[in-house]
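Re: your question about GNAT family N-acetyltransferase

S., sorry for the slow reply, the queue was backed up all week. Below is exactly what I fed in.
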Amino acid sequence: MSAAELEIRRFGHEDLPEIRQTIIDLHAAAAGPDRDDDFKKKFPWFVDHWGSNADFACAIAYDGGDAVGFAYGAPAVEGREWWRESLETPPEKSRTFSYSELAVHPEKRKQGVADALSRALLEGRPEDLAVLLVDVKHPRVQSLYESWGFRKVGERQPFPDSPVYAVMLAELPLP
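Result:
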């Protein structure tokens, strides 16, 4: 299977009841059976939180009938672009898409699925920028996003019990 052979379907807020369990199951598979961290337990709350946004966007990759990965996010509230605090001189254009989650089934990694999902999610977005967070303990993931046009602009710990994340920003459309 190559990324070109995937079927990528797009979904919105109104589709959440149909895709919610698929997203949760894929996230659990991507995290692995041995990983029993707090985020894995809290993940359904995040799905519901992001999915409740009327402009929620999700892309799910299918290999045959099997879901093998997803990416989702939603536009940031204009004027509340939290990433701005990471830059001395923020760009003039600031409409931002918050890229919240990306997960690929372990058996489908390193086959271009993450790239295909990210591009499908961000393609045609009306926003000027995309922002995401990457755990600073995962430099390979950060490098992957950099290869797609994101750049690290700072670090942030959004919750007291969360890891420290690299704040990554990209201009849309991606190169």
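The two ends are 24 Å apart (CA to CA). The first strand starts at residue 7 and ends at 12.

Happy to talk it through on Thursday.
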